[in-house]
Structures are given as structure tokens and as C-alpha cells.
Amino acid sequence: MRVIVETDLEGISGVVSWEQTREMSSAMYQSARDLLMGDVNALVEGLIAGGADDIIVLDGHGGGFNFIPERMHPGARYFTGRNRRPFLGWEELYQGADAGILLGYHAMAGTPDGMLRHTQSSMQGNRYWYNECESGEIAQDALVFGHYDIPVILVSGDHAACREARALLGDGLTTVEVKRGYGEEFGLLLAPEAAHDRLREGARQALGRTSQCRPYRLELPIRGRLRFPDKSVADRFVPARATRVDDYTYDASFDSARDIYFF
Ligand SMILES: [Zn+2]
Questions:
Q1: What is the whole-number distance in angstroms between the Cα of residue 32 and the centre of ligand 1?
Q2: Per-residue pLDDT tens for 114-124?
């Protein structure tokens, strides 16, 4: 059974501030990388216990150099580095995968109780809609998995991210809540060790519920909308394929969910 795990940093246990996720030269960021590897390794242990025999983990946050190679659990393989979406030759690993996991995710931009909430850019306040439904990164990555017929079986993150994921992906989904936000950079956290116990158990349980999860799909072509809160930021945006609608907004049409990152 092949499982593909996509990771982000904002929803990892112990991560609470933008300094931990944005400032690569800071000691706070270095400790966040360590926390990330702790969550990844606990999840991998749970997946192995649940019967997964081919686990691929994608380093998804920011520029894609967050993993610490010497801390990688030997039971998985790891995608890391600069060549990321759009897929350039590596999508074959998604074809034939049985399940997808979103580890360390966060709620979409504008979610009041979402810790480190944003959609794509944490600085610019971008917001995205597909077929008129506002979508965060959980929906975006679930859509790409859905294109390959892969159901998302587990999402981890804060309370708001887990709530967003369940509303989108249904009751078959397993969620692992590792913290609860009471402000953008403030919340009630589990100790990473306690979060790791939940992740191990959640991963094991989620594999047993794979048949209850459906790939997330939207009617094609997908009508995409991207809105910036600021006209000057919208002015600087160079769309790969979009039409400007007004001072703040771009629209695009996608024949395949795989293409939504061309926005
Ligand atoms: Zn991130």
C-alpha cells in the first residue's frame, strides 16, 4: 500500500509563531524543523504499524528545504528541494497511490481561530475560490490528490484546520488535532510527545478507514478565482493563466485539478 504524505509547517505540533515558519536564519525556524521531523516520524511509525509498505513524504512548506536528512525515519522516502509543482516528471509516484495525508496543515486565510492561518502566501492575504467555494490549502492539495484518484485519509493541524478538513472531506476522514488557536500566534498546545502519540494512533486508524474516504473532486472545468486584499500586490502578480477581473481579482479556468497551481 502506497501512502503519500504532504507536509506543511504551520500546523506542526509546537509551532506557534511566524518566526518559526518564515525566518530561515532564525533559531526558532531551526527548532521548528526539528518539531516537523518529530511529527513526520511519529506518523511514519503509525503508518508502518497500520500496514503501509511504501511511504513517500513531501517537504511542502515554503522553499522546500525543511526536512533534516539525518532525522528521517528509514521506513519512508522523502521528496525535498526546489523542483516542486507543477509536477515535472515525478507525478508517476502519485499514479497508483492508495491514500494521501496532509500533515501539519493550517486553516484558510480569514479563519478567526486559525493559528498561522493563510492560503498560499502568509504575507499577502491571498484568497482562493474554486467553483465559487472558498478554498484553503487543505482543499487545494486534496483536489490534486483527487485528480489522481487518491482519497485524503488523515489531516493534522490545529482545531480550525481539522474542522475545515472534516467539513470538506467528510466523516470518513481521520483528523489529528495537535493544538487549538486563540489568536493568530497564540494557542493551547499539546506537548509534541503527546501529539506524536495521537499521530501514531491516528495514522494506524486512518489506514483501516481508507475505504470510507472518497477522492475530493470538483466539476470540470474548475472556475478559479484569486483575490488579493491589496491592489498594489494584485498589480505585481504575473498570472500564468488568468484574466484580471477588477483591481483585486483574477479568474482562470482549469480543465484538470492538477493545474490549479498554475494560477
Ligand atoms: Zn507552510
A1: 12
A2: 999 999 988 88
